Amino acid sequence: MIDLDDPLINGYLRRLIGEDGITLIRNMPEGEVTDEEICNVLNPLKSASKEADDKVKKLKAEIKAAGESQADVKKLEKDLKKAEKEAEKAKAEAVGEYEITLNTVRKILFILYENKFTICRRERDANSGWLTFRWQINMDGIDYQIEREKKKLYRNLLKRKEYEDNNVFYVCPQNCLRLVFDEATETDFICPICGEDLVFEDNELFKQLLDTRIAEFGDMPR
């Protein structure tokens, strides 16, 4: 199992699937599970409340089906009264629980699947044709993915540094836009948005910050 508290892994996954996604991975049951089963694990109080409501509905249906059998009806009504109290209690307990919805669970699972962090098996019901997706976490490739992201970031930083080195910039005092010299001459050094005169921007500090960030990557090949 991966170390979700590792700053590098945690930061990468947080950008990919957010805090809810990390919570999902932490609490993912062993083996193959459906998205609904995952949702129930992530929202135990709301799951208990739903089960209690379903029990009430089932008992009401049984009372209706019992017809004229007074003995059965009397027992079922007693069970219903108890079930309704339990449902009210479960509903009240679930009020303050932070909910990760089924749609959110599905979105997280498919993002993980696209990045090869889950295994998905589909089952089709022979009678209804309904598809059931069964999921299993597989984070074996996360080190490779993080390395790819590092290289991508490194290349982007190098490109940005080259861009900053090779251009002279003018900016609008109202922060409307930032133009390179050739673009600024085309507008006669006037902001095309607000009409203010453009001013020269000294980007030396920004270039120093880029150099510092690039140096953090060490001897990574370009």
Brief summary:
The protein is mainly alpha-helical. It folds into two domains: 7-140, Arc Repressor Mutant, subunit A, CATH 1.10.10; 143-215, no CATH class. The protein has eight helices and six strands, in the order H-E-H-H-H-H-E-E-H-E-E-H-E-H.
Structure report:
The protein has 222 residues and is mainly α. It folds into 2 domains: 134 residues, Arc Repressor Mutant, subunit A, CATH 1.10.10; 73 residues, no CATH class. The protein is 59% helix and 11% strand. It contains 8 helices and 6 strands. It has a 3-stranded antiparallel beta sheet. A 3-stranded antiparallel beta sheet has the order 5-4-6. The longest helix has 25 residues. Pfam families: TFIIE_alpha. GO terms for molecular function: DNA binding. One of its GO terms (biological process) is regulation of DNA-templated transcription. Keywords: Coiled coil, DNA-binding, Transcription, Transcription regulation.
Layout of helices and strands:
Layout: H1 7-27, E1 33-34, H2 35-42, H3 44-66, H4 70-94, H5 102-114, E2 118-124, E3 131-137, H6 142-165, E4 169-171, E5 178-180, H7 181-186, E6 199-201, H8 204-215
Antiparallel strand pairs: 1-3, 2-3, 4-5, 4-6
Helix pairs in contact: 1-5, 2-3, 2-5, 3-4, 6-8
